[in-house]
Amino acid sequence: MGNLKKSDLIEAVFWLALAGIFFAVTYDFNQPIEIYKFGATGWPRTILLLMVLVALGNVFYTLRHGGKALKSRVGASEEPDQIEYRGLRDYLKTGFILLLPFAYAISLKPVGFYAGTPVFIALIMLAWGERRLGFILGSTVVIYTLLILLFMVVLNAPLPQGNVSPFYDISAFMLKTKTQLDQLF
What we know:
mainly alpha, globular
């Protein structure tokens, strides 16, 4: 088995089995959707396919190179990191990082994906300690653009629009623009 350990195989089997189980569950809601050409199972199956590819890629990489951390990778180490909390501020920062995804998920219904996601991306970078405004803005634009291209163009998946006035208007503009672009091509 080369450099593969039993734990590597168990991990791969776990991810492959999980993907298989979820794929079987997708048949329960495999319905055509008028506005989504791939049906209700299109993007979940795409995510599952990516999960399978990553699991197999991980096995292949471990088989060829072993499971040790590469010395050339920045931040890679065999020893666990020593985390020290020096005061209340460190605890609050960790709590903010942990609560931010929940706040984002809760805000999706009233605010919507189109207006809430750029704010979430910028806030998560701030929470991780990034302070360069230009980098935060540039990274937010790139990540948001990639997400919009993935969900609106590639997967053609409906995203939460929000139901509060200014945010709903942003979502309506995005969807109207996408519809106009679809009609052109």
